[in-house]
Fold this sequence. Notes:
heterodimer; A: mainly beta; 10 strands
Amino acid sequence: GAGVSQSPSNKVTEKGKDVELRCDPISGHTALYWYRQSLGQGLEFLIYFQGNSAPDKSGLPSDRFSAERTGGSVSTLTIQRTQQEDSAVYLCASSLGQGGAYEQYFGPGTRLTVT
Amino acid sequence: AQTVTQSQPEMSVQEAETVTLSCTYDTSESDYYLFWYKQPPSRQMILVIRQEAYKQQNATENRFSVNFQKAAKSFSLKISDSQLGDAAMYFCALRNFNKFYFGSGTKLNVKP
């Protein structure tokens, strides 16, 4: 079956512009995560969606970052007024459920470059 | 607070030999799960192996096995008979409730 997909795979934008990154999770997966991975670093948690519950936004670094998940499926991460420090790979992952040993399935990521 | 520490930024192993990647973590929870993920240069992360904290038996998946020391909060990954395809970044992760906490990764080089 299809895995997690993300688009675009690469995005170059000018400082100050807004960007939208898209994630299509695996069908039936109720949990969806966004992470940021800076060069040579581990994954930084950004936001988590589980079903119809309110998202856990505790990892969002500033109010310029927001995310939505429509219909419990596709998610969009929006970064407003991008800054150079926003340059990173943004990874999306989905999971069958919460709790237990559910693993995350990762997408290929979107590489964002802010010039 | 939950933290995951990988103290080896980079390691090398000869093809067909064995290598162990270290991971320590800190959590005050008693119920949690531990994972090792692999990220090849193509950058898509895939699960290597997982361990439930309540299980004393170390998990094994073919050439991959873990040494889980709960009291010491240590979770190392052993790769036996290393292959060129094992070259990647390896991340240790702790799952507590709905969140995953990742280490900074270890880059594994495999020499032919």
